[in-house]
Amino acid sequence: MLSYQHIYHAGNLADVHKHALLCAMLDYLTRKDKPLSYIETHAGRGLYDLAAPEAVRTGEAAAGIGALEGRLPADHPYRRRLVEIRARFGPTAYPGSPLLAALSLRKGDVMHLAELHPQEYQALSQVMAPFGSHLRPEDGFRAARALVPPTPRRGLMLIDPSFEVKADYAAIPGHLAAIHRKWAVGTLALWYPILPAAPHAPMIAALCESFPDALDHQVRFPPARPGHGLIGSGMFIANPPWGAQDEAARLTALFASLKG
Description:
- This protein is of the alpha/beta class.
- The protein contains 11 helices and 9 strands.
- The strands form 2 sheets. A 7-stranded mixed β-sheet has the order 5-4-1-6-7-9-8, sandwiched between helices. It has a two-stranded antiparallel sheet with strand order 2-3.
- The longest helix is centred in the first third of the chain and has 17 residues, at 13-29.
- The model has no long low-confidence stretch (mean pLDDT 94).
């Protein structure tokens, strides 16, 4: 679990899917004049350099944000955040979800971020220092259970594990059910990878049974390079905000354009 570092995958097609949906949901939630809580269980380092050797080596960013950013509407909240990040950190900067959320939230909103990897946590602490985030160097699922119900009670939790620990697939439905019992009003957004053997399928079946009104959105795409196992991206969203279904439909069309 502590071997995973997202710099090799930052800006890939799964990031585009996850981050576009996240920014759209936060854009809607912040329109109401009520404070909210944002919680992230596997935050990563928060900021990535797409010119770094690790990112260049895999080619995933070039096939991801490099291919799709120009196909997003100029006023899309995700694209607006990308412009802000580059103006602040340089032309090859790419934000992780904590930084996207920090730029989307308002004064009075509260952010909690958990990250277990020591080096990633140290980098995250530096990146997020200007934003007044509450950081926790611990297991994300343990942090999630400890933090709910948050204050303010209105809000969104992003659960974004690496799934390098295969037991996560079986454990996650129980984690989400326990979080929901304590925080029934919260939006719970789970990202998961789609691999050829479909290890996500039993997990999603269990989640759909527990959350029959949830939004489960999947996109498929070609591997970034020969032999690469990631062939799609999923977002399971319990208590989806208004407009999330429409955004998912737009992203379905956006990813379909890759085949054209």
